[in-house]
Amino acid sequence: MAVIKVRNTEEIIKGHDQVLSFLEKQGVLYEHWDMSKLQDGLKEKFILNDQEKEEILSTYKEEIEDLAGRRGYKTWDLIALSDATPNLDELLKKFEQVHVHTEDEVRAITAGHGIFIIKGDEQTGYFDVELEAGDVISVPEGNPHFFTLMEDRQVVAVRLFIETEGWVAHPYQETEEVGK
Ligand SMILES: [Fe+2]
Questions:
Q1: Which of 27, 66, 104, 106 has its CA 20 to 30 A from that of 75?
Q2: What is its EC number (predicted)?
Q3: Which residues are annotated as a binding site for Fe(2+)?
Q4: How far apart are CA 172 and CA 92, in angstroms?
Q5: Would residue 46 count as lying in a domain?
Q6: Is residue 179 part of a domain?
Q7: How far is the CA of 146 from the centre of ligand 1 (A)?
Q8: Residue 62 is part of which domain span?
């Protein structure tokens, strides 16, 4: 279950209904996948071969096709990051820049953790959404945000795209304090 931390006020929001209601107000899609469907051997595995990636994608085929049908995604893939990823620190530096996309950025976490730091409305400012396996989130199109890992420094996530060229980020020049 996701946990939200509002950077300016240090408010922490927990619990499904509270998290859902906060994110709905900010225009952020939040859903949940049943992680018990995933075979045990893939729940804590962060170095995945193509066959294992296919296995995860086929386990959640129904959920992926449902999301794609509702929201227009045309392609999807699986990303795995851990200390075994070459240049992890360089990749994280890139992910940690505030940026926007010309489509919404949807991620379904299937193992490990990740944090999206999202610019909320004027009153709220930036807030962290800490995600764990089963959490599905979508940052709205054009909404400034960035992504990083948590202390475990490992994540596996399904990414869905409308544009067929995959992940394209456009830098966003922030004029206010991002906080923390
Ligand atoms: Fe992004």
A1: 27
A2: 1.13.11.54, 1.13.11.53
A3: 99, 101, 105, 145
A4: 17
A5: yes
A6: no
A7: 6
A8: 3-171
Let me know if residue 44 belongs to a domain. Answer: yes
Q: How far is the CA of 128 from the centre of ligand 1 (A)?
A: 14
Distance from residue 121's CA to the centre of ligand 1 (Å) = 18
pLDDT, mean of residues 60-73: 97
CA of 117 to the centre of ligand 1 (A): 10
The number of folded domains in the chain is: 1
Taking the centre of ligand 1 as the mean of its atom positions, its distance from the CA of residue 48, in whole angstroms, is 23
- CA 14 to centroid of ligand 1, rounded, Å: 23
Ligand 1 centroid to Cα of residue 93, in Å, is 13
Contact 106, 71 (CB under 8 A): yes
Annotated binding-site residue numbers for Ni(2+):
99, 101, 105, 145
In a domain, 180, yes or no: no
CA atoms within 13 A of residue 176's CA, in its CB half-sphere:
11
Residue 140 CA: distances (Å) to CA of 37, 91, 112: 28, 22, 23
pLDDT digits over 78-118, tens only?
999 999 999 999 999 999 999 999 999 999 999 999 999 99
Average pLDDT over residues 141-149: 96
Q: How many CB atoms lie within 10 A of CB 151?
A: 6
What CATH number did the domain enclosing 67 receive? 2.60.120.10
